[in-house]
Design a protein that fits this description.
The longest helix has 23 residues. The protein has 9 helices and no strands. By secondary structure, it is an all-alpha fold.
Length: 228
């Protein structure tokens, strides 16, 4: 995916080492408070992302393309899960990265870039779904599991289970669907999920918990009850 940036305003960053400098200033504050012996962890991934963001803000097309390459697949995956439409997801991912480029100067470089991008992607998908709500796949249309001995599933059965799971995901509320995808496909913490969805951490936990219960109910109703 290539994101056109020629028509976007180019911002000059305060410093390429902004994230590191900010952490150092916090360390200086602790020192003045007599807490200098405490260790301040530095997230090297966040610092590395800050450098890439600084380069993109300075006008580096290759730096922003690096951001797109790194996060294109998970962004498309999240949007695809939310909308149920892969082609639409690719278009909305393009829109997500254009929005990200235009808002890059507002990005807090002490935070994870992935969480910020997922939030933009989530909001973009929600807006698209509000404009045109695609019909959800009825869970009743999923083939039922055949009765038989407890054996490892064959490829056909695994494919049918995959279809059943996709249908169950489609039947979830959008916030629950996004929460469970962010948790189990992208491995994000509940705090990060809450930030992306714009809800408290406890609400993010609740979304994931309820989504799991609803998935279990829907899969059981379609004949994929867990083995006793």
């Amino acid at each position: 995916m290539r994101v056109a940036t020629s028509d976007c305003r180019v911002y000059q960053p305060a410093s390429p080492q902004y994230a590191v400098a900010r952490l150092q200033r916090r360390r200086g504050t602790l020192r003045r408070l007599g807490l200098e012996d405490q260790t301040i962890p530095i997230d090297l991934e966040t610092v590395g992302e800050a450098r890439i963001v600084a380069q993109a803000l300075a006008g580096s097309q290759s730096a922003f393309e690096q951001i797109v390459r790194r996060y294109q697949r998970p962004v498309i995956s999240l949007i695809s899960r939310m909308t149920g439409d892969r082609a639409l997801a690719e278009d909305l991912a393009q829109e997500t990265f254009v929005k990200a480029f235009r808002s890059l100067a507002a990005f807090d470089t002490t935070r994870r870039l992935s969480s910020w991008l997922f939030r933009i992607a989530h909001n973009t998908a929600i807006d698209a779904m509000r404009r045109a709500r695609p019909p959800q796949v009825p869970i009743e249309t999923v083939p039922l599991a055949a009765d038989g001995p407890d054996e490892p599933p064959d490829p056909v059965e695994r494919q049918e289970l995959g279809h059943a799971l996709e249908a169950a995901l489609d039947a979830l509320r959008p916030d629950q669907r996004a929460a469970i995808v962010l948790r189990y496909e992208n491995g994000l913490s509940f705090d990060e999920i809450g930030t992306i969805l714009g809800v408290p951490e406890v609400t993010a936990r609740s979304h994931v918990h309820r989504a799991r219960k609803e998935l279990a109910r829907l899969l059981t109703a379609s004949g994929w009850a867990p083995a006793e």
